[in-house]
Write the structure tokens for this entry.
Amino acid sequence: MSTSAQLKVLLDGSSGFYFSDKKVVADINNYLKKNDPDLLKQLLPDRDKELKIGRNYPAALLDGASEADRDARQVKLAKLSERLSGMVEAKAHGGEALAKNIFAAARFPDGDGDGKLARGQVESKLYAAYAPAHDPEADARTLVASPMLKGHPASREPGFKKLGAQEQLTAISAKNLEGLASELDKYQKLFAADPELATYDKLVGATSMDVWRRYGGGLATHATNGDIASHILPTADRHAIQDFAKGLTGDASRAAKVTHTSDTNTQHLATHDYAFFNVYPETNETLKREMLGATRYLRETPEVASSAMAAKAQSFTFGLGDFTAPERLSVMTLRDPVYPAGGTTAADARKRMEGADGFATYGGAEPSAGKAKRHFGTEVDEYETSSRLFTGQHAQKALTMNVHVGLYKTYYGLYQEVLANSSKAPSSSGTSQEGEAGREKRLEQAKGKLEGFSHLVNDITAEPRPKKDGQMETAEECSHRQDKAALAAIKLYQYPQLMVSGPVDISRAEKFTPTQGLERAPTVAQVAPAETQVQVVGEQTRRAITQ
């Protein structure tokens, strides 16, 4: 949105103008004489020939104008606002300075004692009206050229450079799917070759199908600690508003909001052309509210975990399928694209990487941009954003396959850890009782992790069963247990973020505020693309997920 267009948005809400700068008034008089002499005549009292400093234009009620003049005055005000915005647009050089002077003369009914707007008010008004269209091809081109995707294996494929930018992103996504499929194939062969591991295979398959179903009804949520009136704006558009408001008001005291992603994705992603959403699987309403209320972006200072909930905290939730149709450009990463380990410190990363039950082991190194590394028993689990980035059309498959691979990797690594500590070391003079005791302790810990993980995975698909008091679970209790276990398992492998090109209209979103809960939208699509809908169960469904 141009300087003149942004100024017009603000002037449309003004109550008039009070000029105090002789040069500005002279420039306006000359412009109106040339471009709209009739309007200039309408604005002037009978004896005046030009606008003058120290007067209200159009004549205000306090200047003696009658109530009967109100409608005519509003017409004049609308015309004057339009002409002044046009004057800024027509100025080849110095348009920003002229806009600032015109804004300084404007008076607003919701302004301070002098009718002036503060920077925050300017930003709020522009956020409500500012929704510039984006060119998806240009947004895709910026991302493909980012340091994160430089040298991606897909870029070395024949014909890649001849593709359009969106097609290149799709090619990168497809290559990354191939990588997941290769890992899946490796573990399936390992499980098939070991009778003990094969006992877990059916459970892994059933869980994978459940994850597929949950992401078929998945959610995409944008959380904020600030104002959103009509559209969720990409970071670049928000920054444009902040810069304009700063220049217009001269208030540079309040820095733009800083978060992990928006602070560093210029360097890592080289793009601010997207609106960011967290992606969640389908769960019951209680867990859904817990997920929506847990995000750090609702806090006054998002990068500080102990920060208070913001006064304007709110989030907007859509169906994942609203953004993953082929006609809309969206790109998903399976973890925070900049800090996939979960935070800027080793302590933050350890908490997220090891999981609530400690099934993984995190080395504690300071997180590096776009990378993370941990262990499931003997298995190394390495993450790199560039190889876990997918276009929207591949989202449901990627989300499911990543969990499928993760389940296999966890079972295999924990199982191998048990085997590694099961055999006593050969007897020798160097073998101590303390060493044997240490091995037995490690064995018990490894067994505990494997049993605990099996219990968690089984909880995801197990039908109603007896509780501790001997009573059978109700259908609701069973569903809640399954949802809770599924969410815990999924969070062990991914915290997906969806990047959507262009502004996003919130009129059909579910609105959530921490104090008031959910406000239902008229309709919220939560249906995955038709080509990936699950119609049957069993082996046919499993093939749809893994192929």
